[in-house]
Each structure stands twice: as structure tokens, then as C-alpha cells.
Amino acid sequence: FNWNDPPQELFDPHPFARDTPDIAYTVGRRVFAGLGAILGVAQLRAAMADLYASIPPLGSLTTAELERHLYCTGGESAEVRQAFWRFVYANAGQAPAPPLDYCG
Questions:
Q1: Rg (CA), the chain
Q2: Which of 46, 63, 69 is nearest to 10 (CA)?
Q3: Residue 12 phi, psi (nearest 5)
Q4: pTM of the model
Q5: Closest-CA residue to 80 (of 90, 70, 88)
Q6: Is 6 left (phi over 0), alpha (psi -120 to 50) or beta?
Q7: How far apart are the C-alpha atoms of 80 and 53, rounded to whole Å?
Q8: Using one digit for the tens of pLDDT, what is the confidence trace for 47-95?
């Protein structure tokens, strides 16, 4: 990640939105590359495989659920939350600490 890059919004916060922003197809790839650098590519792949195996047929996954899963299975790295905060949710500054029961 280049933490000096401007914040980017890769998801629509509206709960019924079903249109992925076009920027998600370019910046999103960089987000996953950055997550691979933080977590390690093998660990990121394993975490993603576990996550998708847990989704029932015709199920869905929110961006917040993806973030939580990668944070919790990735050793609770603050960089994972910061990456989502800045490059997915388009927020400046520091990501807030997760609730105490976030991974529990």
C-alpha cells in the first residue's frame, strides 16, 4: 500500500446497492495485492478459501464481513483494518479500534 494515496471508495454503503463502482476493478486489485503483502499470499488465499466455503449456496457476503474475516484470521493486524478504512470505505485518518468482541 501507498498510505499517501488518497482515500478510495470501493463499495456503495447503501444496503440494497447491487452496482459495484468501476474503480473497484482497478483499485480493488491493488487492495488485495496489499492485503497479500500484509498477510502473506498463502495466508490470504487460505483465508479467502475458508470464507467462501462458509457461504451457503446463493448466499452473500458484505464488505464488512470480508474485512472482519481477514482481520480476525490474519492475526488481528491493524494494517488490515486501516487498508479497508482508507482504500475501501474512503476514510482519512486512523481506523478506529474494533470492538473487544470483534473476533470472538
A1: 13
A2: 63
A3: -95, 120
A4: 0.89
A5: 70
A6: beta
A7: 21
A8: 999 999 999 888 888 899 999 999 999 999 999 999 999 999 999 999 9
